[in-house]
Design brief:
Number of domains: 1
Structural class: mainly alpha
Mean pLDDT: 78
Low-confidence stretches: 71-79
Shape: globular
Order of helices and strands: HHHH
Radius of gyration: 12 Å
Largest sheet: none
Helix content: 55-70%
Strand content: under 5%
Number of strands: 0
Distance between the termini: 32 Å
Length: 79
Amino acid sequence: MKTGRDEQLMGAINAEADRCLPDGVGEMDIRRIAMCLHERYPHRMAQEIESRLRLVMWSRGLFSTLQPDRHNLVTAAKG
């Protein structure tokens, strides 16, 4: 069930994606960001938050800013 906290969490996730450089100059540590967001939004597991972050970054075409993940989700989604 989606809650007001979920909407706040998605706002925070989108804010992190907004900080990302569109030209891919920088890299984001998705796991570190997910853990930080989990501390603020403990009602969702860090893995859920990480997955949501990856989805948002993927939907924005910001693949090159992501560090490789252990499941190769970004690589699989690209090709």
